[in-house]
């Protein structure tokens, strides 16, 4: 039996930083570069886990009382092995179980083939989504985007992730989504009281995953700065005199402004109002730059600032995508001639244009609202 599952990379369009707070909206686009997981039946006494991103390492595993048991110790594949354990536990609880061993292979288009540096397209989220997708297929369970998202969210929660989980939502559903996370504390509490299958079957109140699309008059350009974003480098050396109470008050105001801007952007997409959408992107960049200054983090490196400035000079709207500090910036244009001018200037500035498009939507998208 040969099984293949793919998960697209992602780019945040708007709502970064705010989205880590439950109930705060963000707009995320899945893009047409993919991470692929292949499963094949093992005819040996062990199964294997292999990734082309770690070509010198192959994990071997067997089953002990039906559960996955990795033979090697201290390996870098914890994200994948936890995703496998979560999906297989769910399959057992569903009484849909295939105990045969398999070989799992990961290949990725989400990094640069020359330098092996990641583009910042959410490879960690994509590998969890594709792994769970493949394991569900192996155990003959119908693959639905919401099911994959919930199992991936449980995986990340068990590993102590404090992120928004927006990357897994984007990879699971494809297309462009308006996303709001739930409080992962609720997931932790539910897992202490219920089985994984029971938690999955519950209504996740507050979770929003709503499909949207760009008007045909808009095109998204993506530039890669060739700088690897490093969260530890986001903290700047600039000192501030604000008290913690003042910072907390500012953050609440930031969240309100984020909601206002995201509502503006969402309405613009729904009404196909190109001008209002472009203004919303510009407003979101300004908000994020102010947030970065107040919270003492580095959002735009010189390369990202240059990327945005080039877009603005060509009457486009541009901003960073994601946490900033490196990786990618995005630019929205309305005329074909803008693309050639912007990408040419990006290349002269050492910024690599990535030939990316919005990935197709995966099946029916649903949302759970409070």
TrEMBL record:
Occurrences of domain GHMP kinase N-terminal (ranges): 86-175
SUPFAM superfamilies: GHMP Kinase, C-terminal domain, Ribosomal protein S5 domain 2-like
Domain GHMP kinase C-terminal positions: 268-350
First-tier enzyme category under EC: transferase
Organism name: Granulicatella elegans ATCC 700633
Family annotation (InterPro entries): GHMP_kinase_C_dom (IPR013750), GHMP_kinase_C_sf (IPR036554), GHMP_kinase_N_dom (IPR006204), Phosphomevalonate_kinase (IPR035102), Pmev_kinase_bact (IPR005917), Ribosomal_Su5_D2-typ_SF (IPR020568), Ribsml_uS5_D2-typ_fold_subgr (IPR014721)
Official protein name in the record: phosphomevalonate kinase
Domain of life: Bacteria
NCBIfam families named among the record's database cross-references: Pmev_kin_Gr_pos (TIGR01220)
Pfam name, any one: GHMP_kinases_N
GO function terms (MF aspect): ATP binding; phosphomevalonate kinase activity
């Amino acid at each position: 039996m040969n099984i293949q599952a793919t998960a697209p990379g992602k780019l945040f369009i708007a709502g970064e930083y705010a989205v880590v707070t439950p109930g705060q909206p963000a707009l995320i686009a899945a893009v047409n570069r993919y991470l692929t997981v292949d499963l094949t039946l093992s005819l040996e006494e062990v199964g294997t886990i292999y990734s082309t991103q770690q070509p010198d390492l192959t994990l071997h595993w067997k089953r002990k009382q039906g559960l996955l048991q990795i033979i090697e110790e201290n390996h870098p594949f914890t994200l994948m092995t936890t995703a496998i354990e979560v999906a297989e536990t769910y399959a057992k609880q569903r009484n849909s179980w295939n105990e045969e061993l398999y070989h799992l292979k990961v290949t990725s288009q989400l990094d640069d083939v020359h330098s092996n540096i990641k583009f910042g397209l959410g490879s960690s989220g994509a590998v969890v989504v594709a792994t769970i997708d493949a394991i569900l297929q192996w155990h003959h369970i119908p693959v639905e985007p919401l099911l994959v998202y919930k199992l991936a969210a449980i995986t990340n929660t068990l590993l102590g992730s404090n992120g928004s989980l927006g990357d897994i939502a984007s990879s699971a559903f494809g297309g462009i989504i308006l996303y709001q996370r739930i409080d992962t504390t609720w997931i932790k509490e539910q897992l202490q009281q219920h089985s994984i299958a029971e938690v999955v079957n519950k209504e996740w109140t507050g979770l929003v995953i709503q499909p949207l699309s760009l008007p045909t008059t808009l095109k998204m350009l993506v530039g890669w700065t060739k700088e690897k974003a490093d969260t530890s480098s986001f903290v700047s050396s600039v000192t501030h005199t604000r008290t913690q109470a003042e910072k907390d008050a500012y953050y609440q105001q930031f969240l309100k402004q984020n909601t206002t801007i995201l509502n503006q952007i969402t309405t613009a997409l729904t009404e196909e109002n190109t001008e209002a959408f472009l203004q919303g992107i510009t407003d979101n960049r300004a908000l994020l730059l102010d947030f970065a200054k107040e919270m003492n983090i580095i959002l735009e490196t010189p390369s990202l600032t240059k990327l945005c400035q080039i877009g603005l000079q060509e009457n486009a709207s541009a901003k960073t995508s994601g946490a900033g500090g490196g990786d990618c910036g995005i630019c929205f244009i309305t005329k074909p001639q803008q693309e050639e001018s912007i990408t040419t200037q990006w290349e002269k500035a050492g910024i690599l244009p990535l030939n990316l498009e919005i990935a197709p939507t995966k099946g029916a998208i649903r949302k759970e609202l409070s």
